Amino acid sequence: MKKIITHGHCSARYKWPTWPDFLHLYEQEQTVSMKQYINLGKPGISNENIARDIVKSVLKFKDISHVYVMWGAPHRHDSMIDSKQEIENTKETWSMWDPDFEWTVTYNKNSHNKQTIKIDSLKTLESILYTQLFLNKHNIDYTMMIYDTRTLPLIQTKPYMEISKQLDWTKFKLYKDIYGLRDFTEDLYPEHLHEKNNTSDTHLHPLPYAHYKWVKDIMFKSDIEVPMPMFGELKNWKSNEHKKNDWMSDAKVVRQWENIDA
Questions:
Q1: Which range of residues forms the domain containing residue 169?
Q2: Model confidence pTM above 0.85
C-alpha cells in the first residue's frame, strides 16, 4: 500500500484536527488506489529536526508516494541528549526517546533573539534545500508549505538570497504566493483563530475549519465541499471545541509512531 507521509510542527498535530486530517478527502480525487496516511508532525519541533525526521521517514518506510511538510518558525530549537532519560515536561516543552537516533530529544525550545534572526532563517533555508535534494534523489514527490511569514522572512543578505535561488519554489503551496496557513486564516477566516486571551491557547492557532479550507482551496484548489454534518461541525468548532488539559496530550502519541509497520 502506498504511503502518504506528513511532517510539521503544531500545525500538523495539535489538540484538534489539522491539515493532515483532511488530505484523504482530496487525495482520493486524484487516484483510485488506497493509501495509508501517516502523520509524523510533532508540536514545537524545529525546522532542522523536521528535515531530519523527513530523511528518517524516507529511509524507514517503504512505498512512499508523497511527502507533505509545513515548515514552522525558524527560531525554534531542540536539544538532544545521547542517552535514554525521562525529562519532566514543562508547560511549553516535551521530551521523548527516539529509538532510531538513540537520543532523548526535547521539543519546543525557543530562542527569541533579534541578533539570531538572520542566522535562524538561513538555517531554515538550508534545511529546506537539504530536504528537497534528498527527496529528489529518492524520486519521492513532495509538497511544501509554511505556517506563516515568519518561516521565510524577506531577508536581503547575500547568503540568504543565494540559497533561496537554489530552492524549487514550484513545490510550494502558498497563499498569495508568499503567505502560509496562519496568514491565510488571519486574512480570510479571523473568527477561526483561537483567541489570544483564551488560557488554553496563547498562540493564535488556526481552528479546524481553517485547516480544512487550506487543504481544499490552497493545496488542491477543489470545488468539492465536505458533507454537511462535517462541514457544520468544522464551521462551529469554536463553540463546541473539545478541550484537553494541555496541547502535549496529543503530542505524546508520538511514542506509538515507532511501532508503525514500515
A1: 2-75+116-257
A2: yes
| Phi-psi group of 49: left, alpha or beta (phi > 0 → left; psi -120 to 50 → alpha; rest → beta) | alpha
Does residue 247 sit within a domain?
Answer: yes
Distances (CA, A) of 197 to 201, 202, 204, 235: 8, 7, 9, 21
Instruction: Measure CA 10 to chain center.
Output: 6
Domain presence at residue 65:
yes
Q: Please answer whether residues 164 and 127 qualify as being in contact, where contact means their C-beta atoms are separated by less than 8 angstroms.
A: no
Residue 132 corresponds to which amino acid?
Answer: Q
pLDDT at 258 over 70: no
Burial 70-92 (b: 16+ CB within 10 A, else e): bbbbbbbbbeeeeeeeeeebeeb
Q: With respect to residue 88, please indicate whether it lies within any of the assigned structural domains.
A: no
Task: State mean pLDDT over 9-29.
Answer: 88
CA distances from 144 to 84, 151, 202 (A): 32, 12, 26
Is residue 106 one of the residues assigned to a domain?
no
CATH of the domain at 121: 3.40.50
| Cα separation, 8 vs 107, whole angstroms | 12
Please report the pLDDT score of residue 19 as a whole number: 96
